[in-house]
């Protein structure tokens, strides 16, 4: 696994096909998270999916200030 990557499992709450990519929504420690995945790899709503977060490519937004961290 590349430096700065972290693998985890999440139950998908929403799966939104967008053509060349699919957006998946899930909750981590009580916070809703959205991720972009390959459409062929996307799971179904309610299923658990193994995801890999590339911390070098993430956009984290402070909910109070709405600034990108």
SSE layout and pairing:
Blueprint: E1 5-11, E2 14-17, E3 22-28, E4 31-37, E5 48-54
Antiparallel strand pairs: 1-5, 2-3, 3-4
Q: How would you explain this protein's 3D organization?
A:
With 69 residues, this protein is mainly β. The protein has no helices and five strands. It has strands at 5-11, 14-17, 22-28, 31-37, 48-54. The strands form two sheets. The protein has a three-stranded antiparallel sheet, with no helix packed on it. Strands 1-5 form a two-stranded antiparallel ribbon. A hairpin with a 4-residue loop joins strand 2 and strand 3. The radius of gyration is 13 Å and the shape is globular. The protein starts with a strand and ends in a 15-residue tail after the last strand. The model has no long low-confidence stretch (mean pLDDT 90).
Structural class category: mainly beta
Average pLDDT for all residues: 90
**Element pattern in H and E:** EEEEE
The share of residues in helices is under 10%
| Tally of contiguous helical segments | 0
Coarse shape: globular
Strand content: over 45%
Largest sheet: 3 strands, antiparallel
Spans of at least 5 consecutive residues whose pLDDT stays below 50 are none
Strand order of the largest sheet: 2-3-4
Rg (CA only): 13 Å
Distance between the termini: 24 Å
How many DSSP E strands?
5
Summarize this structure briefly:
The chain has strands spanning 5-11, 14-17, 22-28, 31-37, 48-54. It is mainly beta and 69 residues long.
Task: List descriptors.
69 residues, mainly beta, three-stranded antiparallel sheet, two-stranded antiparallel sheet
